[in-house]
From TrEMBL:
SUPFAM superfamilies: Barwin-like endoglucanases. InterPro entries: 3D_dom, MltA, MltA_B, RlpA-like_sf. Residues 1-20 form the signal peptide. It catalyses: Exolytic cleavage of the (1->4)-beta-glycosidic linkage between N-acetylmuramic acid (MurNAc) and N-acetylglucosamine (GlcNAc) residues in peptidoglycan, from either the reducing or the non-reducing ends of the peptidoglycan chains, with concomitant formation of a 1,6-anhydrobond in the MurNAc residue. This is peptidoglycan lytic exotransglycosylase. Its EC number is 4.2.2.n1. It comes from Sphingoaurantiacus capsulatus.
Length: 414
């Protein structure tokens, strides 16, 4: 009995003293997590209608309206009416016939202030503010024929430059155009600035004149029109006759990114001075802007804007035709760099009724405007130094504005 108990006790003790072997735990996978779907990027805003239309204060309530002179704007608007009534409006704001009544009234209007106050309703597009820059009609030294000191060609539009309306192929590309040339059985991009400067168009009889200074001609390209002052003292006026379809790059912005310009040097004259002091860098910089402009000889009034009519200095403005109906009036509240003797500028308020009569390769988006200043030294200085945020009010015929604002009120906010 005692032996049994002893053996049993020993067995229990042996069992207690044996090493413990644990069964390894089976890892439990974490619960599956379904990744949240990536939100689709917002659709790009490509027209004024998509940007949104909202009511703006009446003209009588606009700061500076009572002190302004709207007579030149009325004359410019009368000139625009013919094109305004027949153009297809890419903004989505107006339809065929929307401008007929106000244009008929404008034809006999004599009181400009009363005309604009009674015939139009002011509206804002999008946020209502945007960048204002300036352009002018430069005069540079040139010649009709090449010779000593006149070696930089001014080209007319080449016959092999073609423009394609992509909207003819698919509705999703309506309003979009490309330019290029045919090579073999394919359309390819047109020659860029570097290729043209290296002689891609030489020997084709496209030269309508020759400039004395490559940098001055470069800025005449940016302005889109200008004058060649010929050796005999006469002037040959040239205007925009097409663009190569390549992208525009603002070299002033590139120089600022390079910290190459000091305070007060980010004007056209400051940029030209930098390029002349750094010819290799200037040449490389110019070629970053692949856009190239072709010209035609102008006779009569000018320069001509996108509506093929003479622009009015300080009253004509270039705008994006997808955001402003070309020919429409705009009230602008901005500031300009007024030249201050002997050097420098002073920023002064600029509040004026303008007419959208032109476009520009760099003028894209809502409330982005380029103000035309005409010829002369003051125009050069103001336009060359202008870069301000401005508030823009678009004037639409009353019936059109009522229709748009009623539609905006009925559309729920997303």
């Amino acid at each position: 009995m005692y032996r049994f108990l002893t053996l049993a006790s020993l067995a229990v003790l042996a069992a207690c003293s044996a090493p413990r072997v644990d069964t390894p735990a089976v890892p439990v996978p974490p619960p599956a997590v379904t990744p949240a779907p990536t939100p689709a990027p917002p659709a790009p805003i490509e027209t004024a209608l998509q940007a949104g239309v909202s009511a703006a204060p009446a003209l009588a309530g606009q700061l500076g309206w009572a002190q302004s002179d709207p007579k030149p704007a009325l004359e410019a608007f009368k000139k625009s009416c013919r094109a305004l009534m027949r153009r297809t409006d890419a903004t989505g704001l107006t339809k065929s016939g929307d401008w007929d009544a106000v244009c008929a009234t404008a034809a006999t209007a004599t009181d400009a202030r009363a005309f604009f106050e009674t015939q139009f309703t002011p509206v804002s597009i999008g946020g209502g503010t945007g960048l204002n820059t300036g352009y002018f009609e430069p005069e540079i030294l040139g010649s009709r024929t090449p010779g000593p000191g006149y070696a930089v060609p001014v080209y007319k539009r080449p016959s092999d430059l073609i423009e394609v309306d992509l909207g003819l192929f698919t509705d999703s590309l309506k309003g979009r155009r490309i330019r290029g040339r045919v090579e073999g059985d394919a359309m390819v991009p047109y020659y860029d600035r570097a290729a043209i400067e290296d002689g891609a168009l030489s020997g084709k009889g496209l030269e309508i004149g020759y400039a004395a200074d490559t940098y001055e001609l470069f800025f005449l390209h940016i302005q889109g029109s200008g004058r060649l002052k010929l050796p005999d003292g006469s002037v040959m006026r040239i205007g925009y006759d097409g663009q190569n379809g390549r992208e525009y790059v603002g070299i002033g912005q590139r120089l600022r990114q390079m910290n190459a310009l000091g305070p007060g040097q980010a004007s056209m004259d400051g940029i030209i001075n930098w390029m002349k002091a750094n010819p290799e860098g200037g040449r490389t910089l110019m070629r970053e802007n692949k856009s190239y402009i072709f010209f035609k000889i102008l006779t009569g009034d000018g320069p001509l804007g996108a509506l093929n009519m003479a622009l009015t200095p300080e009253y004509s403005v270039a705008a994006d035709p997808k955001f402003v109906p070309l020919g429409a009036p705009l009230w602008l509240d901005s500031s300009i760099p007024e030249p201050k003797a002997p050097t420098g500028y002073t920023m002064t308020p600029f509040r004026r009724l303008m007419i959208a009569q032109d476009t520009g390769g760099a003028i894209k988006g809502a409330n982005r405007l380029d103000l035309f200043w005409g010829p002369g030294d003051r125009a050069r200085k103001v336009a060359g130094g202008l870069s301000s945020q401005g508030r823009t009010v678009l004037l639409l015929p009353k019936a059109v504005a009522d229709r748009l604002l009623a539609g905006a009120a009925a559309t729920p906010r997303r």
